[in-house]
UniProtKB/TrEMBL annotation:
Record-stated family: Belongs to the prefoldin subunit alpha family.
Gene Ontology molecular function: tubulin binding
Pfam family, one: Prefoldin
Protein name: Prefoldin subunit 3
GO cellular component term of the entry, any: cytoplasm
Organism whose genome encodes this protein: Entomoneis paludosa
SUPFAM superfamilies named in the record: Prefoldin
Transmembrane segments: none
Length: 200
């Protein structure tokens, strides 16, 4: 077939809108023959299956990226909760002028801990890792605000990631079912064409 005999097909032809974060929704084809005839010339089974295979690969990529993101966020949320709990303990101790100094262990590097003495009533600041080897000093209220915002953001992102992952997996199922329907339509079409030839 020449290129003029092959209809143009884009992602928009086999999707219908996006979810809230821009992931396309796979179009379920109920009547494959009617859908094929919406193209000029009619779309072949090979073209339709190829288009849905490409879409499936996109969803597999989305799925892998979202799984990685979910894993990172599942680690981040408890870390932020632990940091907030520690900060609140320091703030409570600071309010008690009779609090005796305490000892704390902190990480110098992987599997290397050091010990520090904390003078609770006189401590007013903490240092927080911001990432990319950057540490910044915060007052207790500033640190509480910063960590709380990060915790809220991480929880929201985790909820969105879980929702997106479920959405993508639904689109994978829709694509697989649609590809199966296209294949079955092609088989029936060929049988009908073979039967017609035998009859004639």
């Amino acid at each position: 077939k020449s290129e003029e005999d092959v209809p143009n097909m884009s992602l928009l032809d086999i999707t219908e809108g996006d979810n809230e974060r821009g992931i396309p929704k796979a179009k379920f084809i109920d009547d494959v023959a009617a859908f094929s005839d919406t193209f000029q010339p009619p779309a072949s089974p090979e073209l339709l299956i190829g288009a849905y295979s490409d879409l499936m690969n996109k969803y597999r990529t989305y799925e892998a990226q979202l799984q990685q993101r979910q894993g990172r966020l599942k680690e981040k949320v408890p870390e932020l909760e632990k940091s907030l709990s520690l900060l609140r303990t320091l703030m409570e101790k600071q309010e008690n002028p009779d609090a005796a100094p305490g000892l704390a262990r902190y990480s110098l590097a992987d599997n290397i801990l050091a010990q520090a003495e904390l003078d609770y009533p006189h401590n007013t600041t903490v240092n927080l890792w911001l990432g990319a080897n950057v540490m910044l000093e915060f007052t207790y209220p500033e640190a509480l605000d910063f960590l709380s915002q990060n915790q809220d953001r991480a929880k929201t992102e985790l909820q969105e990631t879980v929702a997106d992952l479920a959405f993508v997996r639904d689109q994978i199922v829709t694509s697989e079912v649609t590809m199966s329907r296209i294949f079955n339509w092609d088989v029936r079409r060929k049988r009908t064409a073979g039967g017609a030839k035998t009859t004639s």
